[in-house]
Specification:
Layout (H helix, E strand, L loop, with lengths): L1 E4 L1 E4 L2 E8 L15 H30 L1 H15 L1 H14 L3 H17 L4 H22 L13 E5 L4 H6 L5 E6 L7 H9 L3 E3 L4 H4 L5 E5 L4 E4 L3 H22 L6 E2 L5 E8 L5 H6 L5 E5 L1 H5 L7 H15 L3 E5 L26 H7 L1 H14 L4 E6 L5 H20 L9 E6 L2 H5 L1 H5 L4 E4 L1 H9 L17 H16 L3 E4 L9 H8 L3 E4 L4 H9 L3 H6 L1 H5 L4 H12 L2
Parallel strand pairs: 3-4, 4-5, 5-6, 10-11, 10-17, 11-12, 12-13, 13-14, 14-15, 15-16, 16-17
Antiparallel strand pairs: 1-8, 2-6, 3-7, 7-8, 9-10
Helix pairs in contact: 1-2, 1-5, 2-5, 3-4, 4-5, 12-14, 13-14, 14-15
The structure holds phosphoenolpyruvate (PEP) and magnesium ion.
Phosphoenolpyruvate binds next to strand 11 and helix 18.
């Protein structure tokens, strides 16, 4: 029996025989050819066959994973038809009389090296696309079979060095119970797809391919990030129980997928999700999200080699809004700076970047960047239920300036004859204590608040959220935080506005009863936390929690608060 640890990439427990997805032997010799025309034709045939296969895989991905994931294969198909890639290959065959394998390999490697060398994650991913496609074409040239996970017809867990997007898209959920890889992280393509497919996965184990052979019995524990090879009877029984418990738990959660979130005593709150890209929307819908409470738009900027254009942004916002239908989507304007850097925006180093030139501060000074984003958002507004919020608002004046720019761009668009919705709510994130303290004054002017506790806690406790040594001061249940949160909610309600929370605290099982009692209207969290939170809220009485409010707000320590809630809610 062997136990390996890795990164828990997708929840659940899978137990099945190992199926190693081995990379085919793609070695070849460079040789001179006499008939260059038929060599060019051989390359063309391999490209055509690969294209046909990818079209099929793309369609399969579209049906099982949705349009956004299928788009990866559009990128692959583009590679296969890109004259900038293909012409140098055919030229090489014609001018140097080399075989198609050598031409493919040399040209593809040149592009892969070029993209890999770029200090931009998006471009580095393009290198992975070219690598993936090239292997397929090479396999056809060499007439070796390319691993085809779509042909698996018995229950297995897949063992691989890594899974390419095309491997993952071919996985048939009926037979593939889980997978584990040597490399990858929580945000790698394969991990993201595993979560969309809801297949348990453990990635980054470093050595699964060395430790596991075809036919071994394997447990993939995607809850705790462990892989067990040939477990003994006792351990196997334990994992079967864990698997059954998780399945039962999921069934209970799933019953609430299309239900509103209602407490035991009949109060409704909204459970919505935090997202970073349009691809994340599938997960929101699959997990019963009632909307998007925080769309962190900076990923659009961080995944690019230059500022995304108005059209690029428009497409992303429109895609999220359309996928969400009439459900609310709160988009946060650019929150760059602090721990989030842009390689192409050359900002001077600062002593205290979290207290520095960031988010709305930067946007108000660089209004060229800001206006582009606002225009893209306004143009997208007619495709769904859009709400816009500004991050890191410290003064009313900042809010007024940001709102004025938004309204100015709205008028500009209208003058250009472009349709803009007239029902866009405009709110702010409350993540700076000064704003939480005078929330009353803000509430007269904003349409809503969304409390960003990740930052609100770091600023209130004066504890850098990136610094491990002071992480003990990240105390969401600290009475100071509870008082600020309460102040914001009361201020909103006094003016007939709503208050939400999009920091990690909103999905925390100790904080949820407190926030329910304080009257929070909207809880925004990672998609997979929604159903557990809905289940918890269903069992809580809002009136009971509200009756503890004064007691909680006057407590002295976070520990006291936590112990009190644990006792009252049996946690
Ligand atoms: C927050 O600060 O709580 C928040 C949600 O924003 P971010 O984590 O992106 O700073
Ligand atoms: Mg923040």
């Amino acid at each position: 029996m062997t136990k390996l640890t890795g990164i828990a990439a997708s929840n659940g427990v899978a137990i099945a025989k190992a199926y190693t997805l081995e990379a085919p032997d793609l070695s070849f010799e460079t040789i001179k050819v006499d008939d260059v025309d038929s060599e060019v034709q051989r390359l063309q045939d391999a490209l055509d066959t690969s294209k046909k296969e990818l079209e099929k895989i793309k369609e399969n991905a579209r049906q099982t994973l949705g349009d956004e994931h299928a788009e990866i294969f559009s990128a692959h198909l583009l590679v296969l038809s890109d004259p900038e890639m293909i012409t140098p290959m055919t030229d090489k065959i014609k001018n140097e009389s080399v075989n198609a394998e050598a031409a493919l390999d040399q040209v593809a490697n040149m592009f892969i090296d070029m993209f890999k060398g770029m200090d931009n994650e998006y471009m580095r991913e393009r290198a992975a696309d070219i690598q993936d496609v090239t292997k397929r074409v090479m396999a056809h040239l060499l007439k070796v079979s390319f691993p085809d996970p779509a042909l698996i017809d018995e229950e297995v867990v897949i063992i691989a060095e890594d899974l390419t997007p095309s491997d993952t898209a071919q996985l048939n959920k009926q037979f593939v119970k889980g997978f584990t890889t040597n490399i990858g992280g929580r945000t790698s393509h394969s991990a993201i797809m595993a979560r969309s497919l809801e297949i348990p996965a453990v990635v980054g184990t470093k050595s699964v391919t060395a430790e596991i052979s075809d036919g071994d019995l394997v447990v993939v524990d995607g809850i705790d990030g462990e892989v067990i090879v040939n477990p003994n009877e006792d351990l196997l029984a334990q994992y079967k129980e864990k698997q059954a418990d998780f399945a039962k738990q999921k069934e209970i959660w799933a019953q609430l997928k299309d239900e509103p979130t209602v407490s035991k005593d009949g109060s409704h709150v909204e459970l919505v999700a935090n997202i970073g890209t349009p691809d994340d929307v599938i997960g929101v819908l699959n997990n019963g999200g009632e909307g998007v409470g925080l769309y962190r738009t900076e990923f659009l900027y961080m995944g690019n080699s230059d500022f995304p254009t108005e059209d690029q942004q428009f497409e992303a916002y429109k895609s999220v809004l359309e996928q969400m239908g009439d459900k609310p989507v709160v988009v946060r304007t650019l929150d760059i700076g602090g721990d989030k850097e842009l390689s192409y925006l050359d900002l001077p180093k600062e002593m205290n970047p979290f207290l520095g030139f960031r988010a709305v501060r930067l946007c108000l000074e660089r209004d060229d960047i800001f206006r582009t984003q606002l225009r893209a958002l306004l143009r997208a507004s007619t495709y769904g239920n859009l709400k816009i919020m500004f991050p890191m608002i410290a003064t009313l004046n900042e809010f007024r300036q940001a709102k004025a720019l938004l309204l100015e761009e709205k008028e500009n668009l209208k003058a250009e004859g472009i349709d803009v919705s007239d029902d866009i709510e405009i709110g702010i994130m409350v993540e700076i204590p000064s704003t939480a303290v005078i929330a009353r004054q803000f509430a007269k002017e904003v349409d809503f608040f969304s409390i960003g506790t990740n930052d609100l806690i770091q600023y209130t406790m004066a504890a850098d959220r990136m610094n491990e040594r002071v992480s003990y001061l990240y105390q969401p249940y600290h009475p100071a935080i509870l008082n600020l949160v309460n102040n914001v909610i009361e201020a909103a309600h006094a003016e007939g506005k709503w208050a939400g929370m999009c920091g990690e605290m909103a999905g925390d099982s100790i904080a949820i009863p407190i926030l329910l009692g304080l009257g929070l209207d909207e809880f925004s969290m990672s998609a997979t936390s929604i159903l557990p939170a809905r289940t918890q809220i269903k069992g809580l009485s809002k009136e009971e929690m509200a009756s503890y409010k004064d007691q909680l707000l006057s407590m002295s320590t976070a520990d006291e608060v936590e112990a009190f809630i644990r006792e009252k809610t049996n946690q």
